[in-house]
Each structure stands twice: as structure tokens, then as C-alpha cells.
Amino acid sequence: AQKITQTQPGMFVQEKEAVTLDCTYDTSDQSYGLFWYKQPSSGEMIFLIYQGSYDEQNATEGRYSLNFQKARKSANLVISASQLGDSAMYFCAMREGRDTGGFKTIFGAGTRLFVKA
Amino acid sequence: NAGVMQNPRHLVRRRGQEARLRCSPVKGHSHVYWYRQLPEEGLKFMVYLQKENIIDESGMPKERFSAEFPKEGPSILRIQQVVRGDSAAYFCASSPGPTDTQYFGPGTRLTVL
User: Fold this and answer.
1) pLDDT tens for residues B33-80?
2) Which of A96, A113, A76 is nearest to A31 (CA)?
3) pLDDT at A98
4) Is B99 within 8 Å of A103 when comparing Cβ atoms?
5) For A42-79, how does the pLDDT look when each residue is reduced to its tens digit (9 = 90+)?
6) What CA–CA distance (Å, rounded) separates A16 from B56?
7) Helix, strand or coil for residue A99?
8) Is the CB of residue B56 less than 8 Å away from at least one CB of chain A?
9) Which of A24, A64, A81, B79 has the most C-beta neighbours closer than 10 Å?
10) Torsion sign over Cα A63, B40, A104, A24
11) DSSP labels for chain A?
């Protein structure tokens, strides 16, 4: 069964430093998509970055990059030059692939990031 | 360029009442997804709809919950005879196609008294 695991319930990082949020996944699909979303205290879900299972290059979006290691089934999010506004909950998610015939997205439990001034 | 819109943002119901949550997808998106988030937890998939069709409802409780996405108008998630355990944030997301990135609305926070 598909599963997303985020092993860090909470993380602290100093402002302007980089931080890595871990995510591992389990799937038997060959084709799938991996996502990271940010949920600030206001509650909305903000899309950050996407990685397709067939993409050979790691995805990058501004200060966000996704360290995709397919053989290890990991999709860690790297935030460079942390800012106070990065303090939020971060969710890793995986969209089912065509192999299973479904397209629902499953989410990890989340990692709460605290950026210290 | 409006994103996904949900209303109401906050909804209070007494046990036994009905809750109706509305979701207007991004213009041009024909795929809608509903998720539920309990406090301090991740999002749990409930249902995936295309216009007028339910594609996957494997995450929907078998009783009291229903969803629709009519040809015209918003998608509706309906919860009948609400119980305290239904208190949660309900998020709607939309995408242009089934394999595209899903964009989320601001959520509806349901409180059952």
C-alpha cells in the first residue's frame, strides 16, 4: 500500500541557514508524483514543489529544492536561506500512479518547522 | 486569477444537523478533490470528482457523507446528522487534469457542538 513517512515531528533552524525536511515513500507504482506543501498557522495549504518519478533532475523552485533519491524512495525538501516566514507545517505528499488506476494523493503526518531569529 | 474558493470558511453545527461545504475550483479545472484534516494531523483523502462523476470515493465514510460536482456550480460536500467527531478542517483542491498538481482552497473549519 502507498505510504508517506515524515519522521521529524518538529525541526528548528537558524534564520539564513539551510534545512532539510525528510520524506520517504512506499509505492509499487512506476509512475507517481511527489509534492511538498506548506501550511502556515493561518491554515491554508500552499503548493511548493513537484517531482515526477521519471524526472531525472531534482526539482527546484526558488529557495526550495527536492532531493529525489528514487532507489531509496526518498524525497527530502531542502529550504535554503531560511526566513522567519518559513515557520510552518510542511507536508510531503504522493499522487498515485496510473498503475494502480487511481489518482488520489496521500499525505504524510507533517513536520513543523521553527525558524529562529 | 482566482484560486480555489471554499465557503463558508467557518461553520458551526449542532449534533444532528446537516453541514454543506462548497468548493469552486480554479477556472478551467474540472477535477476536484476533498480532504479532511483532523487537528495536528495530515490531510486524509476523501473523494475525487470530475464534472458530474465521482471517480474515487474510497476515503469517504460509508454513511452520512456525500459529494457532488454538478455540471454547473460548485462542488458540494454534504455531511448529514453531524457528530462531534466530524469536527475538522475540510479542504478542497482542484487540478486541470488527473495527474496535474492540485491547488488547495483555504479550507472550511467545521465545529460540531
Assistant:
1) 999 999 878 899 999 999 889 988 989 998 999 999 998 899 999 999
2) A96
3) 60
4) yes
5) 888 999 999 999 988 999 999 999 999 999 999 999 99
6) 43
7) helix
8) yes
9) B79
10) positive
11) --EEE---SEEEEETTS-EEE--EEE---SS-EEEEEEE-TT---EEEEEEETT--SPPEETTEEEEEETTTTEEEEEE-S--GGG-EEEEEEEE--GGGT---EEE---EEEEEE-
Cβ–Cβ gap A105/B56 under 8 Å: no
Closest in B35, B99, B107 to A44, CB measured: B107
Among B44, B56, B101, beta carbon nearest to A102: B56
Q: Tell me the C-alpha distance between A97 and A47, whole Å.
A: 19
Residues of B in contact with A107 (CB under 8 A): 35, 42-44
- In the structure, what pLDDT confidence band is assigned to residue B22 with cuts at 50, 70 and 90? very high
CA of A110 vs chain B CAs: smallest distance (Å): 6
Q: Show the cell assigned to B28.
A: 478551467
The verdict on B89 touching A (C-beta cutoff 8 Å) is yes
